Amino acid sequence: MAQLKAISPTSSINLASCGPKRNTLSNPDNFICSRKFSSLQELSGKSSSLHGHAIVSNNGPISLTHKNRGIRAVLSSDTGAEASKATKGGGLRGKLNKVVLAYSGGLDTSVIVPWLRENYGCEVVCFTADVGQGIKELDGLEEKAKASGACQLVVKDLKEEFVRDYIFPCLRAGAVYERKYLLGTSMARPVIAKAMVDVAREVGADAKKKIFTNILSIQVRFELTFFALNPELNVVAPWREWDITGREDAIEYAKKHNVPVPVTKKSIYSRDRNLWHLSHEGDILEDPANEPKKDMYMMSVDPEDAPNQPEYVEIGIDSGIPVSLDGNTLSPASLLAELNEIGGRHGIGRIDLVENRLVGMKSRGVYETPGGTILFNAVRELETLTLDRETIQVKDSLALKYAELVYAGRWFDPLRESMDAFMEKITETTTGSVTLKLYKGSVSVTGRTSPYSLYREDISSFESGDIYDQADAAGFIRLYGLPMRVRAMLKKGI
User: Fold this and answer.
1) Which CATH code, of 3.30.2310.20, 3.90.1260.10, 3.40.50.2300, 2.40.370.10, is assigned to 277-387+427-449?
2) Element (H, E) at 256
3) Is 54 helix (H, G, I), strand (E, B) or coil?
4) Domain at 3-256, CATH homologous superfamily
5) pLDDT per residue over 431-469, tens digit each?
6) Biggest alpha carbon distance in the chain?
7) β-strand 270-273 against 328-329: which pairing, if any?
8) N or C: which end of the chain has fewer CB within 10 A?
């Protein structure tokens, strides 16, 4: 079986193995193999979880370098009969040596592991990315992956990177898709796909495997990232190849290949959760005339049941990026997780949206974005102090296109990157703090301050005439209204 080892300049630590034994590790930023987490806090409380990914390698030792901490991980593969049997002679559809599999531990991903081995004769290492989906999705992943035929499970914590490098740039840009949607799912796909490409490159994989769903928009978001970051890698998409057409077919295939079927209560809703939001689709929501059921929501209480007393929060912002809560500086993921808790208990951030999918069809979804809604209101409000009228208008117009690019999976498109450079430059002075009142589903701004504020009380006051003279208004109005006056004169024959 494979084993993942971490090597630091001063010590060598055995992180995990593919056997039934679990190890704990306090540093969530490292690559790990089927690890047992010691506390909710280690996974950012209720906001932690996984997204599926995987690697496959039969090339012996490989080296993974952690960019921030300089820790090198070495994956060594035993030369047992199990590994050689998986790759010998290829499969029914061809031969691949190493595959990176997006893995969640559900029925579909469990079935795909033996399907890959059977059809492409490859080893499969399951890779799960944690972008804050919830701690329950971690439970038993190692056993599930191993039982499905995978040689290893690798989990990478991407929460800080996700918030810092994907969520906050969208927040700074003011990117909202179709007036409501704060792009929770759309922002998560590129960070997961990028990690997938990084791992594939590190292990020398010749294929990436994306199995999340047969929804085209999600496939597009993953594969456009693959194309942008490593066009030489192949993409294997079972949804477009296999004969499995439904849940019953998948269960039958699993039994045939001795894969334990995950025994879970099937939700009537299709959900996607990460640290930014939770989406709900399907069942009664498919009819846009139906009101969502009260018990469907998971991140927020019903505004009617929220506390009868409002709560005030102060958000500190530096150059368009949130940095603190009530004066306490927090990491990006910690700040968002804390605001999710606060906003959730006041019923903040619920939206019901009929959106236009990438392929043109309309779909209805309900989203919970408690912390994100608070942050969006804070950043937007601070801009009213720090940006002039023309700048706000141009920024808002570009924000629409920015949101469309992110929604369409074009995160690594040069256009989005160029627009992001503009957003970064234009918000250099968007620094200060905003105080908001949270009460029964509403977010109200009660105060804002900035050292770069363009608001001047001595100019705005009606009592002062030193800078703004009321007598100046007469000439301005005559000139400003000249086109309207000329048009009216023409109609009257004057």
Assistant:
1) 3.90.1260.10
2) helix 247-256
3) strand
4) HUPs (3.40.50.620)
5) 999 999 999 999 999 999 999 999 988 777 766 566 777
6) 99
7) unpaired
8) C
